[in-house]
Amino acid sequence: MNVVRRTLALALAACALAGPAIAQEYPTKPVRILVPYPPGGASDVTARILADKLSKRWGGKPVFVENKAGANGVIGTETIARADPDGYTIGLVASSHVTNHALMKKVPYELADMVPVTITAQVQLGLVVNPSVPAGNVRELVAYAKANPNKLAVATSGRGSNPQLWALAFQRMTGTQMIDVPYKGSALAHPDLLAGQTQVMFDAVAAVMPHVKAGKLRLLAVGGAERSPFLPDTPTMQEAGVPGYVNASWGAVIVPAKTPKAVVDKLNADIVAILNEPDTKERLAGLSAEVIANSPAAAAAFMNSEEVRLTKLIRDVGIQPE
User: Fold this and answer.
1) What domains does the chain contain, in order, with CATH numbers?
2) Given 8, 210, 291, 304, which residue has the most CB atoms within 10 angstroms?
């Protein structure tokens, strides 16, 4: 028995020492940042910033970005979940990561198959209307929509997308009814919105601001808990008359479950440091992205709470999994 106990104690001690040793050596080969969405979006841009700066931080070790889009991020995320848990496959996902199980009958992984490293940033939504809509603020929009049920058409970027959830939540919380017009992506929705064929949209601030500045759309509010630092004069939805309305997109760095804690901690320290660098913040500000850069524990708590909140929202607005 004493021999068994001594052997077990030595094994545990070896494991305890192995963690720091792994982190000190990591990485020793190329690291892949997998983005389960098409190139050009906020997740992709963030991943490419991190890849460049992590490579420099790690003495020139190669860090490359791979886009593997499809099925609202499920195809690429499955690759992340099934990768070796050694820190050489990192994922960068958006907030849809925690809603896919509520939107789809079959998802080939569980959220527990991955663990967060950090929340990278959040991107606020903007509620915009075509100038033909007789509303200069949210209260006027609600009054007009109530007086004219199903007269306004709200553009969304597809079933289960953040813009659709935000639009359905707005209607539920304000007692309004609008016609849902889904598109295959936010960019494809904008031409009809600008032409007045649809009249309302909830979309990422960075995506709509060029049209707002050109006078082609009117921005009524943003959806965050606090005003956007990039639009300090624009009220939040709560300030504008919709109590309890808080919605924003966010990004997160994740790795496969069972990745050694020492590697997760090293990734967190390096990525948080990069996100907080002034030039990184400036580049992300171009996407109206507000840096979060928190701990793995804080990221996990946030993502768990978002899964609960958004799953309830999906059920409340009547979206059934397909």
Assistant:
1) 31-122+249-316 (3.40.190.150), 124-222 (3.40.190.10)
2) 291
